[in-house]
Amino acid sequence: MGGGDASGAGAPDAPEAQEQKRAAAAAYDYEGDARWADYWSNVLVPPHLAAKPEVVAHFRRKFYQRFVDRDLVVEPMASTGSTQPSRPDVRSSPPASSEGVRARSTGSSSRSAAPPPPQTNTAANPLRFDARTILFSINAWVLVVAGLGMLPILPKHLADRACKLSLLGTVLSSGYSLYSTYGKPSALNMPAIQGWLQSVLGAKDFIHLMFSLLLVTSQLHLKISALPVFCWALDHVARFLRRNFAHSSFYRGYLEEPCLWVETNNTTISLLSSNAELALGFLMIISLFSWRRNIIQTFMYWNVLKMMYRAPATSSYHQSAWAKIGRTVNPYIHRYAPFLETPISAVQRWWLR
User: Fold this and answer.
1) Which of 56, 55, 69 is nearest to 23 (CA)?
2) How many CB atoms are closer than 10 A to CB 19?
3) What share of the chain is helix, strand, coil (3-state, %, to 5)?
4) What number of other Cβ atoms are within 10 A of residue 183's Cβ?
5) Could you tell me how many helices (H) and strands (E) the chain has, helices first?
6) Gap between the Cα atoms of 90 and 246, Å rounded
7) Which of 212, 204, 275 is nearest to 235 (CA)?
8) What is the CA radius of gyration of the chain?
9) How do residues 57-81 score in pLDDT, each as one tens digit?
10) Alpha-carbon distances of 316 from 31, 202, 273, rounded to whole Å
């Protein structure tokens, strides 16, 4: 009796606290947080649902719960087709299992003999054969191969082959992710293809696909091309392991700390990837003076860098890298090579156009 009174007295405070947390989550500056753009770009939401305010608000609350206030309770989204399965919440399984325990303790032999099968299958088999598992498998393979390709002790011909295989794996993973998220053009005619391209043009997976396609067909063999691929695969694998293997003893013993480090230093990893992408662009310009030069491929790669500079998922990291380059190089240009200011201004106008 006393316990019931105490819980009844404390009950009104919980909704008020949650209302305050929801208001804080709604007022949070998501556009000013670089992590939000990266988080939203990795949410698998069909295009016809991604524009709905309630869908965006739901995933913003989930972002706020994950990165700002873990005490915020995010209610399940109403039936919106395929949006709910795209972001499975690992914390939803323990309440289901506790309900099964309470059902068995009521004394009803018919209900206690049959635990709910959907939750049991989900807990027993975290590696279901679905789109997310296929993407995880490809990215895990890319992570290993790209890491081998960057090893300095590996012979050059093996390192070059490993880098090409990692780029090919990124082509497969990003292409499959685009297909599972956006589908294919509704018809094989120019208006349908143009509409489909406009919907995927700013997606991170499309940028990764263009990056990998250009480099996997290039005659240049640069180890630095495996570094962005390695960073992308590392982030994907770490997020998948934290979502699906949080209760595994092997994960807790060996993988939890590395995955937590990757999630904590996500901004640093993204900046490292952006710097490597820019360095690769300058190396391709230098390669124009060698016998392996490819003017069209270099121009197309710099258009990919221009796309990365504008895309919401990568713009903050690339703009930061370019600002650092400008602060370092501009004083020397003004002092020692002022004649370069006119061509640099023309390139900047093309870049910002």
Assistant:
1) 69
2) 10
3) 75, 0, 25
4) 13
5) 20, 0
6) 8
7) 204
8) 25
9) 888 888 888 888 888 888 877 654 4
10) 11, 14, 12
Quick one: which H or E segment has residue 327? Answer: helix 315-336
Residue 100: pLDDT over 60: no
Contact assessment for residue 228 and residue 143, using Cβ atoms and an 8 Å cutoff: no
Higher pLDDT, 163 or 290: 163
Element (DSSP H or E) covering residue 271: helix 266-286
Instruction: Supply the DSSP symbol for 44.
Output: -
Q: What is the mean pLDDT of residues 287-296?
A: 87
Are the beta carbons of 287 and 302 closer than 8 angstroms?
Answer: no
Count of CB atoms situated within 10 Å of the CB of 286: 10
The pLDDT, as a whole number, for residue 227 is 94
Query: Which residues neighbour 15 within 8 Å (Cβ) at sequence distance 6 or greater?
Result: none
> Which pair of structure tokens corresponds to residue 218?
């290039």
Residue 183, by phi and psi: left (phi above 0), alpha (psi -120 to 50) or beta? left
Phi-psi region of 248 (alpha: psi -120 to 50; beta: other; left: phi over 0): beta
DSSP string, 94-155: HHHHHHHHHHHTTS-HHHHTS--HHHHHHHH-SS-SSHHHHHHHHHHHHHHHHHHHT-TTS-
Residue 300 tokens, joined:
């197309």
What is the residue whose two structure tokens read 């289901």? 96
Q: How far apart are CA 276 and CA 278, in angstroms?
A: 5
The pLDDT tens digits of the residues spanning 191-220 come to 888 888 888 887 889 999 999 999 998 888
Q: How many other β-carbons are positioned within 10 Å of the β-carbon of residue 233?
A: 26
pTM equals: 0.63
Higher pLDDT, 334 or 117: 334
Q: How many other CB atoms are there within 10 angstroms of residue 42's CB atom?
A: 17
- For residue range 4-28, what is the model confidence (pLDDT) as tens digits? 444 444 444 577 888 888 888 888 8
Cα–Cα dist 117/127, whole Å: 17
Neighbours of 117 (CB within 10 A): 8
